[in-house]
Amino acid sequence: MPFAPLEATKEIDRRIDHVLVRRGTGVVADAAFTVDAPVDGRFPSDHFPVVADVRFP
């Protein structure tokens, strides 16, 4: 996990990335995951991004 200041650790379990889809639109999520591996030994962000594969009607 990337470094976070002490006051930020209180919020560490709050979600900040979402994939929102309105029900009834026919959009289907085939897969979703977080990118939690470092790049060249470093994390590219202060949080893990969400990636989703979705199909639109």
Provide keyphrases for this structure.
57 residues; mainly beta; two-stranded antiparallel ribbon; 1 helix; 2 strands; elongated
Write the layout of secondary structure elements.
Elements: H1 6-9, E1 28-34, E2 50-55
Antiparallel strand pairs: 1-2
Written account of the structure:
The chain has one domain (1-57). The model has no long low-confidence stretch (mean pLDDT 75). The protein is mostly beta strands and 57 residues long. The chain has one helix spanning 6-9; strands at residues 28-34, 50-55.
Strand content: 15-25%
Q: How much is the average pLDDT?
A: 75
Secondary structure: helix percent: under 10%
Whole-Å distance between the termini? 37 Å
Supply the number of helical segments. 1
Quick summary:
This protein is mainly beta and 57 residues long. Helix content is 7%, strand content 23%.
